[in-house]
Amino acid sequence: MPTLRHMIVNLLLVLLGALPLGVQANEAIWQALEEGGLVMLMRHALAPGIGDPPGFERGRCETQRNLSEEGRAQARAIGEAFRERDIPIGAVYASRWCRALDTAELMELGDVEPAPWLDSFFRGRGDRDVITQAAREQIVAWEKSGNMLLVTHQVNISALAGRGVGSGEMVVVRPAADGLEVVGRLDVRAP
């Protein structure tokens, strides 16, 4: 958890305009996450390529596009950043694709539950509307004190939040009665 001194220094830097906007935005998101009750829509860590190769089978990682060594290190570093800030995590769900499950497990933020409602629907792999509606229902129902981490895919995040993210980035949302409210974007890779 950031110390009072750390928070005061960052506040002064923000007020003086000395921190870049991305860092300022990240600090605001980190502070919101410390309070809990939010949902993080995270794109799996770096897995070079697009989609999955011919012969893809869910449950057989050797047939899928998987995390690179850089992606594995990225997932571990993101988890470490959450632990350093003592961000409360109430639940961790991941798409059943190996790159999403591996990302969530390498972050070491809690038990990972595979969730079909986070599976990719890229290139007709699943029903976009059904998957998006099921995920939205899970998000709206979140009322715990900790935060919920959902490790999924670019297409899913775009369908839910109306914006995309890079590998390992997140869109943080607040559950609302009429859907979800985007709180902001979190890029743990930012300084």
From TrEMBL:
Name-wise, this protein is Histidine phosphatase family protein
Give the top-rank taxon of the lineage listed in the UniProt record for this protein.
Answer: Bacteria
Tell me which species this is from.
Answer: Vreelandella gomseomensis
